[in-house]
Amino acid sequence: MCGFMVVILAVSAYRDRRAVSKVLRENERLINENRDLQNRLTLSSRTAQQIADRKDMQHQVEGKFVDRREYFRKNWKQYISVNTGDYKTGFLGGIKNLQITVRNQTEYPLDNAVVKVEYLRGNGNVFKTENYTVHNIPEKGAQSVQASNSRKGVKVNIKLVSVTSQPLNFCWSVDKKAAVNDPDPWACVPTK
């Protein structure tokens, strides 16, 4: 009789274990499905917010004509840059084969760009400073100029000093201060 009871309890425990296992698998499936639905809802909510934001932007922008030249003048630092190529330094100092390149990503050519080059010693002090003018930088292009060699120096710093462009109506100089109330301070000839 005890053996019979043990068999009945074992069969009952086996059935209970299978039922619990089935419930756990179903719960795991439902949790995963819930997580997927939650992710889709979040994504859908973000998309709806982006669409709403874009519609708000369209309403704000409607009726406003953006002059491309004015846009490039106001945001010129994003479109005009200067850099050096790989140059050689001597064992005891000295810089050779220094090339200065001005890049113009605007839709208008640049007439001139003046670049200041500081030749630095190993301790960081400036050995000498020279200005170079790069002429006729094409739109969406670059123009380079070869800098003179230096008998001293191990490194160079370069900075734009001024940029001018008649087609862009752009006159920027590091010395020219923008007026506080001027909406387009880098225009050579005021547009309004």
Per CATH, the class of the largest domain reads Mainly Beta
CATH architecture heading of the largest domain: Sandwich
CATH-derived topology of the largest domain: Immunoglobulin-like
- Counted by DSSP, the helix tally is 2
Order of secondary-structure elements: HHEEEEEEEEE
Q: What shape does the CA trace take?
A: elongated
Fraction in beta strands:
25-35%
Please provide the count of β strands.
Answer: 9
Distance between the termini: 108 Å
Q: What share of the residues lie within helices?
A: 25-40%
**What are the low-pLDDT stretches, counting only 5+ consecutive residues below 50?**
none
What is the typical, i.e. mean, pLDDT? 86
Query: What is the makeup of the main sheet?
Result: 4 strands, antiparallel
Strand order of the largest sheet: 6-5-8-9
Structural class of the helices, strands and pairings? alpha+beta
Rg measurement, Å: 34 Å
The count of domains is 2
